[in-house]
UniProtKB/TrEMBL annotation:
The gene is ydaM. It comes from Gimesia panareensis. Gene3D superfamilies: 3.30.70.270, Hypothetical protein af1432 (1.10.3210.10), PAS domain (3.30.450.20). This is diguanylate cyclase. It holds the Pfam family GGDEF. Its EC number is 2.7.7.65. One of its GO terms (biological process) is cell adhesion involved in single-species biofilm formation. Keywords: Nucleotidyltransferase, Transferase. It comes from the Bacteria. Residues 8-19 have a biased composition (Low complexity).
Amino acid sequence: MNSPQIATSQTVPQQQQSVHGSYNMGSSQILRELIAFSAESDEIALETRHADEIDQVICRKHLRKLLTALQARDAATLSHCRRVAFLAKGIATNLGWEGIHLKRLEVAALLHDIGKIGVPDHIIFKPGKLTSDEIELMSHYHHIGLDVLQACRTDHEVLTILSQTRFHFSGATNGYQCIGSDVHQGARILAIADAYDSLATDQVYRAGKKHEEIMSILMGAAGTQFDGNIICALSRWEQTERDTFHEAIQEVNQNFQPKPLTEQEISEANLISNIFSYLFQIESLYDGFYIVNADFQFVLFSPGLEQLTEIRAFDILETAWTNHSLPITNQEGTSLASSEHTMNRVIASGKSMTTELMLKRPDGRLIQIEVQSVPMFGEDGRLVGVAEIFRDLSRSLKRPQEFNELKMAASQDALTSVANRGELETQLAILLNQASQNQNAAPLSIIFIDADHFKNINDTYGHAVGDEVLIELARLFQHETYSGELVGRYGGEEFVILCPETDLDHARLKAERLRLAVNNLKLSNLNNNRITASFGVAQLEPGDSLESLFHRADNALYQAKETGRNRVCSLTCDEQMSGAAPDIVEPAQPNVGKMVFESSFSALISSDIVVYKLGGFVNDNDARLTEVNPNRAVMRLGKAGLLPFWGKTDDRRPIEVELVFDNATKKSTSASRHATPRVEVMIRMTPLGWIKQPDVFQQRATRVFRLLKDYFVAD
């Protein structure tokens, strides 16, 4: 295999032209600089025992150098990063973040575009929209930034936030492995802050947009690309502190004025620019790489290599390299002897080498790879580290961006952007396989959903309106489901939700909550007429196959429709075999036309935080608590006038709100996921005083319900 030997001390990477000038460095020297970053971070950490919050997150010296290099490269990008940091910090503060976690998010926001230092001029400064090829090249900057931040020993939470910032809330961009709140909340906050500032800022090809238009665009992507609850938190912040909010953003711009750089800063900026430019070449040409230091500790494990090996950098960084660190075999699939490992061979010879080997994937499949191994020596001739660079020889497609887009298109429903039938079946097959290999596997349930009388909607309002109804239903299901649960369109007006770690009883309750949410959904295209849906629920039982589980849930759905629609029905294997009546959750009377509002949501907080969230809501909304205990609270919102009639504004429309709290912490048996604290909150609202129009009350109650969801960080 003839391939460019880029990682040798004789090779000099092509340099971008810097406004301050630049100097050439050999690639081996550049890789040594990354090891030096790591060593310097360790030394400073030992010297600064009483470090402040910044030094706990990233070495302050490295942070200053990186931001200075970004200013030298493109001051506008640094200004954007500062505004994004302000927005992210403000949103997080409104969501209850504080202390070291808030500082980590702020640092992540400041550094989220740091990889752009390595992007060539003709791409980063192009006066117009990028082509697909340029977008593909531009996408590498994200990995480059993570490469350097790993070498700087940056806090793991910062790396996690940055690595997940581009994950869509729906899970579509990461193979549905991280769905909803499985994505780190900091990453979800940063994604929205970044999008907000990008839309608000003038671009070469368009003018910056106004706040109202930006919020409309963000809400249009809620549930798919972005977390709708965080968008609501941003909206609430802007509404509460409107003048301060916009003035503060302007102040961030005014306070940041690019300063003249000293000769030392110019030299440091050019060194960092060389490093980023070289990493851009590696990320463009190869699939991943790692670096170990003289003690054989991993100091860098690139995101590309994470994807290739399915080994998390978090699990391997700062651990010692061994013969078994990576699942590499010979061409026959046999484990390598110690003398066959490229790491040991280049250390023994002191020379770089390229070898073709096999990499064993977690599913047992072998793929052919090329490994370039580069030993690095200091000026005194001592070994300072080794880099190994990987190329996947089995990948025929040269443009991974297009591959990812095709993969997304193949797994998504074209209309609703949720998973399609094929992806649902693929993900369920994976879950069934995991369950079959674990005797103590967590329960798994599925929910089948069918929109009632959907043909009448198409016949009455037209297929375009019918499509809008399906889009709104998909969006609602994504808003109302927990993290890890996959929403998909099975076909026509049928949806399916896969619910890992959920038994039948909890799945029934979840389905009933979704049924109520559908009942409360108002669609302007239907002249505000409401729609209903029927639900069928089944749990995985011993001996189940993909087909039998789907079939049982479908039968339960059929029973729900046959017994009157707009209800939840569950079915077990025994009930199906014996022909016994299925378990039906009888629907409560809908709220339409009634002076009562009932609903529920799942709050992504631990039970001991509930009282603080409730106190914040009471203080901010001038409410009055009339009863409170660990599991229940009753409060009153709004005040009556001299007469008990409702007024024209919400503050003159008093209501009583009852909240019942049920600790519903979701436990995880997967090593890759942590337990997600959550509390199920049941809401019941009734009007106080005299009111004749039920719709006016329902609208008032709906607004309060949404506000409560924002405060409690509802899933």
